[in-house]
Specification:
By secondary structure, the chain is an alpha+beta fold. The chain has seven helices and nine strands; from the N terminus they run αββαβββββαββαααα.
């Protein structure tokens, strides 16, 4: 549990490190503080004095906020019965670091089982997903259609060298029909869940968010069966 009374010790430590060393510096993690009021949603307003102290440390250390790709708020919790969202986790870098790693990007990843979202820092930037090769999914074994396709293909009277490839293609087509795009469904439901969290933090009913979280968790359980 963070001790607010010792936060000033962290600020002093960061400033001392800045004065002592002149190396390229990337500083990231849970700072348990926001820079500006719009980085907090729900609950009581954040202390202007606390935010100003954080901004002064950032300025004194010559830090630049690396921003984010993904979710704005990296922490969620309850305070006094209210849902609160904060951007507590972030990454800073000095000009020296950015001169050597100008493509550096920060990605905030969704998490439905922890109060903090993970942040991933990639000095080479964030690239798109490569084309995924065929792979047999464990969850297919729970459906009768999988066995039927494999038996039909291998018992076919016409056999040729690319039969395994044709079987794989047919399994992929069947999977899309039977399961849809699991990751697409998860992405869409996760976005709806994020919107519901914002709404609850602003006073909306909690039940809708609870139901969406259950749906997302069910999709995550199914996705966990995928290799």
């Amino acid at each position: 549990m963070p001790e607010a009374s010792r936060k000033c010790e962290t600020w002093v430590l960061l400033c001392n490190l800045h004065r002592k060393y002149t190396l390229p510096w990337l500083c990231a993690g849970d700072f348990n503080e926001v820079l500006l009021s719009h980085e907090k949603l729900g609950g009581a307003p954040r202390s202007e004095t606390a935010m100003r102290d954080f901004r002064e440390v950032v300025d004194d250390c010559g830090f630049m906020d690396l921003g984010y790709v993904g979710n704005k708020y990296s922490w969620r919790g309850r305070r006094g019965g209210n849902i609160v969202l904060d951007r507590l986790d972030r990454a800073f870098a000095t000009h020296f670091w950015l001169a050597l790693n100008s493509a550096t990007r920060v990605q905030c990843l969704r998490a439905n089982t922890f109060d903090h979202y993970s942040i991933v820092i990639n000095p080479k930037g964030i690239t798109g997903r490569p084309c995924k090769p065929f792979r047999f999914e464990h969850m297919w074994l729970k459906e009768n259609g999988c066995g039927k396709i494999v038996r039909a293909e291998w018992l076919s009277p016409i056999q040729h060298s690319n039969s395994p490839l044709l079987c794989g293609d047919k399994l992929m087509e069947w999977s899309k029909r039977s399961f849809g795009s699991m990751r697409k469904q998860l992405e869409e439901k996760s976005k709806l869940l994020e919107k519901a969290k914002f709404a609850v933090a602003q006073g909306a009913d909690y039940e809708a968010m609870k139901l969406l979280r259950m749906e997302v968790n069910e999709l995550l359980d199914k996705e966990s069966l995928m290799w």
